[in-house]
Design a protein that fits this description.
Blueprint (H helix, E strand, L loop, with lengths): L1 H16 L1 E5 L4 E3 L6 E5 L4 E8 L2 E11 L3 E4 L2 E4 L5 E4 L8 E5 L4 E8 L2 E11 L3 E5 L5 E2 L2 E2 L43 E3 L4 E4 L6 E5 L4 E8 L2 E6 L21 H6 L1 H4 L3 E13 L12 E6 L7 E5 L2 H8 L6 E10 L9 E9 L1
Parallel strand pairs: 22-24
Antiparallel strand pairs: 1-4, 1-12, 2-3, 3-9, 4-5, 5-11, 6-7, 7-10, 8-9, 10-11, 13-14, 15-18, 16-17, 18-19, 20-21, 20-23, 21-22, 23-24
Length: about 350
């Protein structure tokens, strides 16, 4: 009985001050615990949470989908985007992405805003992938919240030296206070005590390993975790360029619907290679005689693509078996070219599958 009372008190306290739950990793959201994938959350995405079920928590994902990536049937929408559909925080192609919804997944239509649908979807996320922050309520005195006095700036040089000004006192820093995640710390190199598992975030998804011979430099600390940098040598051929504007979940339909927004963005797509050709004057957006790979995709999407080839990749593209599937890393040159509307991308790398 005491335990139940404690739970009730905690629940009332949380509801009185408000709580916000966010994804701390690129967490997979599933139909049921260990079930089919619904979406992949973006780090920092805000979620509505429900009851816990073992190591999983029920969540509601909400956001906006563009009409080009869904088919509508009454209040149910089905996503049709081979690389997934970007669910955004508001109705706009430049709005932050909340999650990437899987191809073929159904979502509930909440409202319509121009070319955008506001949607929601229930799912389950592993509890350790979530973080709930409860805002602290100010203390009550006589039924009214006590507000901290506003800090006043110190008198400037040359100002009148009258009565001393009162400055609000700051709470003392404790020995356990940690710096911001991106604040550099003065530290030397550290040796790995044993083979390390590198993670995207504290308790996050593993991204790699480092053996006991590794030397790392600590750049930030967070509640028992250290963010580290390491140096070493790898073969350049084993690297794929990464662009800060990468939009791997975007489809060819997205490029055509908002070409200016995606211009210059980088995508990683699986496409079907058709043939290497040379551009003729009808191919607007390509230089005369510029070599390009005619392809179809991405994924199961049937859109034609013009993949402009640098000289170094022409031979590799010509050696591809007819109608083979490849992974390309490419930068968007034109989301919709004239007169055909076919997207044009500059190929950075080709990886046979």
């Amino acid at each position: 009985m005491r335990c139940n009372s404690l739970v009730l008190v905690c629940a009332l306290a949380a509801s009185s001050v408000g709580a916000q739950t966010t994804a701390i990793t690129a967490a997979p959201a599933r139909i049921a615990p260990d079930g089919r994938l619904v979406a992949t959350m973006r780090v920092g995405a805000t979620l509505k949470t429900g009851a816990a079920k073992g190591d999983w928590t029920a969540v509601t994902i909400e956001g906006f989908l563009h009409k080009s990536v869904v088919t509508a049937k009454k209040d149910a929408l089905t996503v049709h985007a081979s690389s997934g559909a970007a669910l955004r925080v508001s109705a706009g192609a430049s709005a932050a992405i909340v999650a990437v919804i899987e191809d073929g997944m159904q979502v509930d239509k909440v409202a319509v805003n121009g070319d955008w649908f506001r949607v929601k979807r229930d799912a389950f996320v592993q509890t350790h992938e979530l973080k709930t922050v409860v805002a602290k309520a100010p203390p009550l005195v006589g039924g009214a919240p006590v507000r901290a006095p506003a800090a006043q700036s110190a008198p400037q040089r040359g100002a009148s030296q009258g009565a001393p000004q009162r400055v609000a006192a700051l709470p003392p820093r404790t020995a356990l206070a940690t710096p911001a995640a991106d604040a550099p710390l003065a530290s030397g190199d550290f040796a790995a005590a044993h083979p390390l598992v590198l993670r995207a975030a504290p308790d996050g998804t593993p991204t790699g390993t480092a053996d006991s011979a590794a030397r790392v430099r600590i750049v930030a600390r967070d509640h028992g975790w250290a963010r580290v940098q390491a140096e070493g040598w790898v073969r350049e051929s084993e690297l794929i360029p990464v662009d800060s504007s990468s939009v791997s979940a975007v489809s060819a339909a997205d490029l055509r619907s908002d070409p200016e927004h995606y211009k210059g963005s980088t995508v990683r797509w699986v496409v079907q290679a058709i043939a290497v050709q040379s551009a003729d004057p009808l191919r607007k957006g390509l230089a005369p005689d510029e070599p390009y790979l005619l392809a179809r995709g991405p994924g199961s999407e049937s859109s034609l693509l013009y993949l402009a080839l640098p000289t170094a990749l022409v031979a590799s593209a010509k050696a591809l078996p007819p109608l083979s599937y490849i992974m390309v890393l490419a930068r968007v040159r034109a989301g919709r070219s004239d007169p055909s509307g076919v997207p044009i991308l500059d190929v950075l790398r080709i990886v046979p599958r």
